[in-house]
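Subject: Sanity check before I submit

Could someone independently write out the C-alpha coordinates for this chain? I want to compare against mine line by line before I put it in a report. The sequence has 285 residues.
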Amino acid sequence: MKNILITGANGQLGNEMRVLSAEYPEYAYFFTDVAELDICNEQAVMEFVQANDIHVIVNCAAYTAVDKAEENVELCTKLNANAVGYLAKAAEAYGAEFIQISTDYVFDGTAHVPYRESASTCPNSVYGHTKLAGEQNALTLCSRSMVIRTAWLYSTFGNNFVKTMIRLGCERDSLGVIFDQVGTPTYARDLARAIFVAIRQGVVPGVYHFSNEGVCSWYDFTKAIHRLAGFTDCKVKPLHTEEYPTLAKRPHYSVLDKTKIKETYHIEIPYWMDSLQSCIEELEA
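---
Independent answer below. Compare away.
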Protein backbone atom coordinates (compact mmCIF):
# COMPACT_ATOMS: atom_id res chain seq x y z
CA MET A 1 0.00 0.00 0.00
CA LYS A 2 1.28 3.47 -0.95
CA ASN A 3 1.29 6.14 1.72
CA ILE A 4 0.30 9.53 0.29
CA LEU A 5 0.99 12.87 1.97
CA ILE A 6 -1.28 15.73 0.88
CA THR A 7 -0.27 19.14 2.22
CA GLY A 8 -2.58 22.14 2.23
CA ALA A 9 -5.44 19.73 2.85
CA ASN A 10 -7.83 22.45 4.02
CA GLY A 11 -7.60 24.40 0.75
CA GLN A 12 -9.65 24.01 -2.41
CA LEU A 13 -7.52 21.36 -4.09
CA GLY A 14 -6.63 19.59 -0.85
CA ASN A 15 -10.31 19.23 0.02
CA GLU A 16 -11.09 17.86 -3.44
CA MET A 17 -8.26 15.33 -3.01
CA ARG A 18 -9.89 14.31 0.27
CA VAL A 19 -13.30 13.86 -1.41
CA LEU A 20 -11.87 11.75 -4.24
CA SER A 21 -9.66 9.66 -1.95
CA ALA A 22 -12.75 7.54 -1.15
CA GLU A 23 -12.56 6.30 -4.76
CA TYR A 24 -8.97 5.12 -4.22
CA PRO A 25 -9.10 3.00 -1.04
CA GLU A 26 -5.92 1.15 -2.04
CA TYR A 27 -3.85 4.04 -0.65
CA ALA A 28 -3.25 5.28 2.90
CA TYR A 29 -3.61 9.06 3.23
CA PHE A 30 -2.02 11.71 5.41
CA PHE A 31 -4.02 14.92 4.96
CA THR A 32 -2.14 17.76 6.62
CA ASP A 33 -2.39 21.50 6.99
CA VAL A 34 -0.18 23.76 9.10
CA ALA A 35 -1.60 22.38 12.38
CA GLU A 36 -0.45 18.83 11.50
CA LEU A 37 2.73 19.66 9.56
CA ASP A 38 4.50 22.99 9.16
CA ILE A 39 6.06 22.60 5.72
CA CYS A 40 8.19 25.71 6.37
CA ASN A 41 10.07 23.64 8.99
CA GLU A 42 12.63 21.56 7.10
CA GLN A 43 13.37 19.18 9.97
CA ALA A 44 9.66 18.58 10.65
CA VAL A 45 9.12 17.73 6.97
CA MET A 46 12.03 15.27 6.91
CA GLU A 47 10.88 13.57 10.11
CA PHE A 48 7.26 13.30 8.95
CA VAL A 49 8.15 11.76 5.59
CA GLN A 50 10.50 9.26 7.22
CA ALA A 51 8.24 8.34 10.17
CA ASN A 52 5.21 7.72 7.96
CA ASP A 53 7.05 5.98 5.11
CA ILE A 54 5.61 8.39 2.53
CA HIS A 55 5.66 7.20 -1.09
CA VAL A 56 3.99 10.19 -2.78
CA ILE A 57 3.86 13.86 -1.73
CA VAL A 58 1.20 16.11 -3.30
CA ASN A 59 1.83 19.72 -2.33
CA CYS A 60 -1.46 21.63 -2.44
CA ALA A 61 -0.24 24.27 0.03
CA ALA A 62 0.55 27.76 -1.24
CA TYR A 63 0.36 31.46 -0.48
CA THR A 64 -2.30 32.43 -3.04
CA ALA A 65 -3.35 35.95 -1.99
CA VAL A 66 -1.90 37.49 -5.15
CA ASP A 67 -2.23 41.16 -4.18
CA LYS A 68 -1.21 40.69 -0.54
CA ALA A 69 1.88 38.84 -1.78
CA GLU A 70 3.22 42.15 -3.14
CA GLU A 71 3.53 43.36 0.47
CA ASN A 72 4.30 40.00 2.12
CA VAL A 73 7.28 38.88 0.07
CA GLU A 74 9.02 37.02 2.89
CA LEU A 75 6.03 34.88 3.88
CA CYS A 76 5.11 34.23 0.24
CA THR A 77 8.69 33.12 -0.49
CA LYS A 78 8.75 30.83 2.56
CA LEU A 79 5.59 29.00 1.56
CA ASN A 80 5.78 29.02 -2.25
CA ALA A 81 9.52 28.50 -2.73
CA ASN A 82 11.44 27.43 0.38
CA ALA A 83 8.86 24.95 1.69
CA VAL A 84 8.67 23.32 -1.75
CA GLY A 85 12.41 22.76 -1.53
CA TYR A 86 12.05 21.08 1.87
CA LEU A 87 9.34 18.75 0.55
CA ALA A 88 11.41 17.95 -2.55
CA LYS A 89 14.51 17.17 -0.45
CA ALA A 90 12.50 14.87 1.80
CA ALA A 91 10.98 13.11 -1.21
CA GLU A 92 14.43 12.58 -2.71
CA ALA A 93 15.92 11.41 0.58
CA TYR A 94 13.25 8.73 1.13
CA GLY A 95 12.52 7.69 -2.46
CA ALA A 96 9.12 9.35 -2.78
CA GLU A 97 7.44 10.87 -5.83
CA PHE A 98 6.63 14.58 -5.62
CA ILE A 99 3.75 16.44 -7.28
CA GLN A 100 3.97 20.24 -7.01
CA ILE A 101 1.07 22.49 -8.05
CA SER A 102 2.03 25.70 -9.83
CA THR A 103 0.35 28.50 -11.75
CA ASP A 104 -0.17 30.39 -14.99
CA TYR A 105 1.37 33.42 -13.22
CA VAL A 106 4.85 32.12 -14.13
CA PHE A 107 4.09 33.66 -17.56
CA ASP A 108 3.75 37.37 -18.31
CA GLY A 109 0.55 36.88 -20.32
CA THR A 110 1.74 38.54 -23.53
CA ALA A 111 1.28 35.45 -25.74
CA HIS A 112 -1.60 35.00 -28.17
CA VAL A 113 -1.50 31.20 -28.49
CA PRO A 114 -1.83 28.67 -25.63
CA TYR A 115 1.30 28.34 -23.50
CA ARG A 116 3.19 25.08 -23.82
CA GLU A 117 5.33 23.77 -20.97
CA SER A 118 8.46 24.74 -22.91
CA ALA A 119 7.44 28.42 -23.25
CA SER A 120 9.76 30.95 -21.62
CA THR A 121 8.68 31.93 -18.11
CA CYS A 122 8.56 35.61 -17.17
CA PRO A 123 6.53 36.28 -14.02
CA ASN A 124 5.59 39.88 -13.28
CA SER A 125 4.27 39.51 -9.72
CA VAL A 126 5.70 38.38 -6.38
CA TYR A 127 3.29 35.46 -6.43
CA GLY A 128 4.48 34.41 -9.90
CA HIS A 129 8.16 34.77 -8.99
CA THR A 130 7.81 32.67 -5.82
CA LYS A 131 5.79 29.96 -7.57
CA LEU A 132 8.43 29.75 -10.31
CA ALA A 133 11.13 29.41 -7.65
CA GLY A 134 9.08 26.59 -6.13
CA GLU A 135 8.93 24.84 -9.50
CA GLN A 136 12.70 25.08 -9.84
CA ASN A 137 13.25 23.72 -6.33
CA ALA A 138 10.93 20.79 -7.01
CA LEU A 139 12.61 19.84 -10.28
CA THR A 140 16.22 20.29 -9.13
CA LEU A 141 15.95 18.76 -5.64
CA CYS A 142 13.83 15.69 -6.43
CA SER A 143 14.45 13.43 -9.41
CA ARG A 144 10.84 12.14 -9.30
CA SER A 145 9.13 15.55 -9.42
CA MET A 146 6.09 16.49 -11.47
CA VAL A 147 5.04 20.15 -11.65
CA ILE A 148 1.45 20.85 -12.70
CA ARG A 149 0.64 24.44 -13.65
CA THR A 150 -3.03 25.36 -13.40
CA ALA A 151 -5.15 28.51 -13.61
CA TRP A 152 -8.35 30.18 -12.37
CA LEU A 153 -9.02 27.48 -9.78
CA TYR A 154 -12.46 27.21 -8.16
CA SER A 155 -14.46 24.61 -6.22
CA THR A 156 -17.24 24.20 -3.69
CA PHE A 157 -14.65 24.77 -0.93
CA GLY A 158 -13.15 27.97 0.44
CA ASN A 159 -13.24 31.40 -1.17
CA ASN A 160 -13.04 31.61 -4.95
CA PHE A 161 -14.29 33.55 -7.95
CA VAL A 162 -17.36 31.39 -8.57
CA LYS A 163 -18.65 31.69 -5.02
CA THR A 164 -17.90 35.42 -4.95
CA MET A 165 -19.80 36.05 -8.19
CA ILE A 166 -22.77 34.04 -6.91
CA ARG A 167 -22.78 36.11 -3.70
CA LEU A 168 -22.51 39.41 -5.59
CA GLY A 169 -25.20 38.29 -8.01
CA CYS A 170 -27.53 37.96 -5.02
CA GLU A 171 -26.51 41.26 -3.42
CA ARG A 172 -26.21 43.68 -6.35
CA ASP A 173 -28.22 45.01 -9.26
CA SER A 174 -25.09 45.47 -11.39
CA LEU A 175 -21.50 44.33 -11.43
CA GLY A 176 -18.37 45.28 -13.42
CA VAL A 177 -16.03 42.45 -14.46
CA ILE A 178 -12.80 42.52 -16.50
CA PHE A 179 -13.21 41.38 -20.10
CA ASP A 180 -9.66 41.82 -21.44
CA GLN A 181 -7.97 39.09 -19.38
CA VAL A 182 -8.40 35.71 -21.05
CA GLY A 183 -7.76 32.21 -19.73
CA THR A 184 -9.52 29.01 -18.72
CA PRO A 185 -11.27 28.23 -15.42
CA THR A 186 -10.27 25.03 -13.63
CA TYR A 187 -12.63 23.02 -11.46
CA ALA A 188 -10.40 21.77 -8.64
CA ARG A 189 -12.12 18.36 -8.68
CA ASP A 190 -11.02 17.81 -12.29
CA LEU A 191 -7.44 18.68 -11.35
CA ALA A 192 -7.60 16.37 -8.32
CA ARG A 193 -8.83 13.56 -10.56
CA ALA A 194 -5.87 14.10 -12.92
CA ILE A 195 -3.49 13.99 -9.95
CA PHE A 196 -4.91 10.62 -8.90
CA VAL A 197 -4.37 9.33 -12.45
CA ALA A 198 -0.72 10.40 -12.19
CA ILE A 199 -0.36 8.71 -8.81
CA ARG A 200 -1.89 5.49 -10.09
CA GLN A 201 0.17 5.39 -13.32
CA GLY A 202 3.35 6.72 -11.68
CA VAL A 203 4.94 10.16 -11.85
CA VAL A 204 6.63 10.93 -15.17
CA PRO A 205 8.98 13.77 -14.15
CA GLY A 206 8.65 17.18 -15.76
CA VAL A 207 6.33 20.16 -16.14
CA TYR A 208 2.69 19.77 -17.18
CA HIS A 209 -0.25 22.09 -17.76
CA PHE A 210 -3.81 21.43 -16.59
CA SER A 211 -6.95 23.53 -16.79
CA ASN A 212 -10.36 22.78 -18.19
CA GLU A 213 -10.84 22.92 -21.97
CA GLY A 214 -11.90 26.08 -23.76
CA VAL A 215 -11.22 29.80 -23.38
CA CYS A 216 -13.08 32.73 -21.80
CA SER A 217 -12.62 36.10 -20.15
CA TRP A 218 -13.51 36.86 -16.52
CA TYR A 219 -16.57 38.66 -17.94
CA ASP A 220 -17.62 35.55 -19.91
CA PHE A 221 -16.98 33.41 -16.83
CA THR A 222 -19.21 35.62 -14.69
CA LYS A 223 -22.01 35.63 -17.27
CA ALA A 224 -21.90 31.82 -17.33
CA ILE A 225 -21.91 31.62 -13.52
CA HIS A 226 -24.96 33.86 -13.27
CA ARG A 227 -26.81 32.05 -16.06
CA LEU A 228 -26.18 28.61 -14.53
CA ALA A 229 -27.07 29.88 -11.04
CA GLY A 230 -30.33 31.34 -12.39
CA PHE A 231 -29.59 35.03 -11.79
CA THR A 232 -31.42 37.37 -14.16
CA ASP A 233 -31.58 40.65 -12.22
CA CYS A 234 -27.85 41.44 -11.88
CA LYS A 235 -26.48 43.29 -14.93
CA VAL A 236 -22.84 42.35 -15.65
CA LYS A 237 -20.84 45.09 -17.34
CA PRO A 238 -17.43 44.58 -19.04
CA LEU A 239 -14.45 46.49 -17.60
CA HIS A 240 -10.96 47.16 -18.95
CA THR A 241 -8.11 46.05 -16.68
CA GLU A 242 -7.12 49.67 -16.02
CA GLU A 243 -10.60 50.34 -14.65
CA TYR A 244 -9.97 47.83 -11.86
CA PRO A 245 -6.44 48.51 -10.55
CA THR A 246 -4.77 45.89 -8.36
CA LEU A 247 -1.43 45.71 -6.53
CA ALA A 248 -0.27 42.69 -8.55
CA LYS A 249 -0.15 42.67 -12.32
CA ARG A 250 -2.30 39.92 -13.86
CA PRO A 251 -1.50 38.06 -17.11
CA HIS A 252 -3.74 39.31 -19.94
CA TYR A 253 -3.56 35.93 -21.67
CA SER A 254 -2.98 32.72 -19.72
CA VAL A 255 -4.49 29.89 -21.76
CA LEU A 256 -2.53 26.69 -21.13
CA ASP A 257 -1.82 24.00 -23.73
CA LYS A 258 -2.68 20.64 -22.15
CA THR A 259 -1.50 18.30 -24.90
CA LYS A 260 1.38 16.88 -22.83
CA ILE A 261 -0.64 15.75 -19.81
CA LYS A 262 -3.41 14.35 -22.04
CA GLU A 263 -0.96 12.30 -24.09
CA THR A 264 1.24 11.18 -21.17
CA TYR A 265 -1.61 10.05 -18.91
CA HIS A 266 -4.32 9.36 -21.53
CA ILE A 267 -6.89 11.59 -19.85
CA GLU A 268 -9.84 13.52 -21.22
CA ILE A 269 -10.35 17.00 -19.80
CA PRO A 270 -13.89 18.39 -19.46
CA TYR A 271 -15.05 21.64 -21.09
CA TRP A 272 -14.97 24.53 -18.60
CA MET A 273 -18.69 25.28 -18.80
CA ASP A 274 -19.65 21.64 -18.19
CA SER A 275 -17.47 21.54 -15.07
CA LEU A 276 -18.82 24.89 -13.90
CA GLN A 277 -22.35 23.50 -14.15
CA SER A 278 -21.33 20.47 -12.07
CA CYS A 279 -19.84 22.71 -9.38
CA ILE A 280 -22.86 25.03 -9.22
CA GLU A 281 -25.23 22.07 -9.02
CA GLU A 282 -23.24 20.77 -6.06
CA LEU A 283 -23.26 24.20 -4.39
CA GLU A 284 -27.05 24.30 -4.75
CA ALA A 285 -27.60 20.73 -3.54
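---
OP: Matches mine. For the report I'm noting this point. The two ends are 35 Å apart (CA to CA).
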